[in-house]
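chain below, 242 aa
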Amino acid sequence: MIASPLAPALTLPFMSSTSSTRISKRLAVVGTVIGLHVVGLWAMQSGLIARVVEIVVPVQVMAEMIEAPQPEIPPAPPPPAPKPQPVVNKPRPMPKPVPRPVPVAEPLPQAVEPATISAPPPEPPVAQAPAAAPTAVQTEAIAQPAPPKIELPSSDADYLNNPRPAYPALSRRLGEQGKVVVRVFIDANGTATRAEIRTSSGYERLDQTALQTVQRWRYVPGKRNGVAEAMWFNVPINFVLE
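prediction:
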């Protein structure tokens, strides 16, 4: 070993005992550290550390190469062979007997006698039934005359010159409108003798205007079988705002 270059601490005569003790401890620690470094350098130079590394590394490599034995896995058993199925022989069907044709005896030709055609006997004459007498219903139908032809009165003839009803001014302003049906009794000479409201428009002013207008009109009188006759007649009047 190489001796430490540092010498032990010297005691000075002027230093106290306490301070000398502290200095000696520090010097001892420093000397120890320096000694360890010197020993390490000497070991590296002499090759001791390299040998230790060479010894340790193969052990680790051998530990890695050696593996634990793995359990052997038995092979899977082969599948069972299918069982042979017994072959069943089906009995063959017996052939059906074929019927043999039976000879049929042909009929002998027979002599055909000519047919005799005789004229039919004459039909007896049909007696005609006497004409039935007319019943009471037919007699009444013949006796009753035809229904009469009726022509209703009219107020639309051009020659009558009937004026249109005047629209009440108040009804026009209030927006009143509707349909009025006036029932008029027309005389044989075409004059309205009576009149009444059959269907109202819902407004009194419109109803009264229609009633007064119809009573002033002239009419073509109604006729029965072409003869003028007094009768009732319905006259419709519409009040519509334009």
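The chain is about 30% helix and 15% strand. Confidence is low (pLDDT under 50) at residues 1-15, 109-119.
thats it, cya
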